[in-house]
């Protein structure tokens, strides 16, 4: 039975990733940080639709220390794939941000995913095939003013995946980044309708992405047939900012 961990499963993109992977036959760990009711709802709905697969909710705080991370990893059954769909941003001028806010964005978006990757490696390498996919951003390729730290973390994920993939390529573990452009998710609720309309007008495809546009590429990268694709950042942006 193929099993994956989806971090950030209660987010707009994460939930759709869970739905797509479940339809493709994956059993899942449905991760949440704070929103347990939503994680439970996702898991229960997936169990009804796919009764021959397992769906378990797991709680983990990306601000955890190293010992807590080790205990978390040890509590899990073996997995074939890990999807990092969590992420936060802090919108505003760098000079207006507190150092604690900057550190939090870096930890949740970059530092903790790298540490978890290290801890997951042993179990992933024992599988016939294994996969890691990070959710990056178009801003990792074209930095965004007022989101400089966020942009740095997403660029860091792409370079980390590129480098780390070369360390493990011969083992059957592939490591890639799916980098969305502007997506119609609650994360963009901070922006006014007028601002989002302006963004949409800049996108050659003429619309914002939906969660399914991103989940498709995550699902594809988790298939056994995708083994020769590794170290890549796949921009799913409708042609925006490329």
From TrEMBL:
Pfam families: adh_short. InterPro entries: NAD(P)-bd_dom_sf, Sc_DH/Rdtase_CS, SDR, SDR_fam. Belongs to the short-chain dehydrogenases/reductases (SDR) family. It comes from the Bacteria. Signal peptide: none annotated. This is 3-oxoacyl-[acyl-carrier-protein] reductase. One of its GO terms (biological process) is monocarboxylic acid metabolic process. Gene3D superfamilies: NAD(P)-binding Rossmann-like Domain (3.40.50.720).
